[in-house]
Amino acid sequence: MLRTMFRNAQRRYASGNAYQHGNPLPITITPSKNEVNRLQLSSRNLETAIWSLHKDGLVVIEDVVDHCSLDALNEVMIRDAYALRDKPDSPFNYNPGNIQQDPPPVLEHFHKSIFLNHVASQVTSTFLGPRPKWTFCSGNTAMPPTPESPPQSQPVHTDADFSHPAHPFALVVNIPLIAMTPENGSTEVWLGTQNDAGLESQDCRHGERASGRIKSHLLEERRAIRPPSQPLVKKGSIVIRDLRLWHAGKGNHTRDPRVMLAMIHFAPWYRNSMRLEFSEDIRSLIEEESKLEVPVDWVSREKALSSYLNRGFGNSYDFNQTP
User: Fold this and answer.
1) How far apart are the first and last CA of the chain?
2) What is the pLDDT of residues 215-238, one digit of tens each?
3) Which residues touch 31 (CB under 8 Å, ≥6 apart)?
4) d(CA 301, CA 280)
5) Which domain holds residue 260?
6) H/E element holding 196?
7) Nearest to 191 by CA among 10, 43, 2, 30
8) CA distance to 76, 127, 160, per residue, from 198 (Å)
9) How many domains does the structure of the chain reveal?
10) 3-state DSSP assignment of residue 231
11) How confident is the model over 126-137, as pLDDT tens digits?
């Protein structure tokens, strides 16, 4: 019943009438079987995706990621999540229940349906320009509650916690490994705020633990216009959002970790200097990729496996561009 209510609301929103009443739900595109088989959206659905990104700063596209690949990656990343949670220097973002973790960068866990998804790159290259640069690959895991760490929400924030262009320059491709619901920590999104993420709207800057946090009075003003939502996102979906969009990780009230990957595609003109670090056994897959530019530092399989759970997190990454 709840899913039906959400779907009906999304259809009303997609019709163009609900937006005027501040509907908080994102546009969700369900590709045809032919589009899924070809891994390419029709021109009509592609237009809807681009319109949604310009208007809302976010779009959901269903049924484009292989479920078996998701299951296989989820199994290993859940194991890693517990290992990261128990580290003395756990890589949490804002609160201990919200862990940043990288996927294992070796061949057997590098599923093209996930990391080189052609529907995702079709949308990002149409929106940002040909061959966007993929320079960030990590994930966000909402951990089950414990007596010491009950479910908590991140502060509403933007990932663009630095002086940045006023026009679009980066898209985050989020891929949940299981269905996301309000119960297991679906991300809270504030649609349409991607143009309101300048430094004047933020309390903290890059380098501070709560960087990018949106000022409380602006949240209340925005809530009166268009409140936030925690959308239901089906397994097999991708969520593409403008890096500047206001959002907040939410607490997980279930018994199972909820892993969501985060890959950033930057516009080809944007001078971000970050590079990925992958095992050499992935090189042939990356070099075959024609839709993305992928700067990589190649390392041995042994080094990749020994280091990927000890990387930096949060503010150790710099999404700014060079002068």
Assistant:
1) 52
2) 999 999 999 999 999 999 999 999
3) 41, 42, 45, 61, 62, 63, 64, 119
4) 6
5) 2-316
6) none
7) 10
8) 38, 21, 8
9) 1
10) coil
11) 999 999 999 999
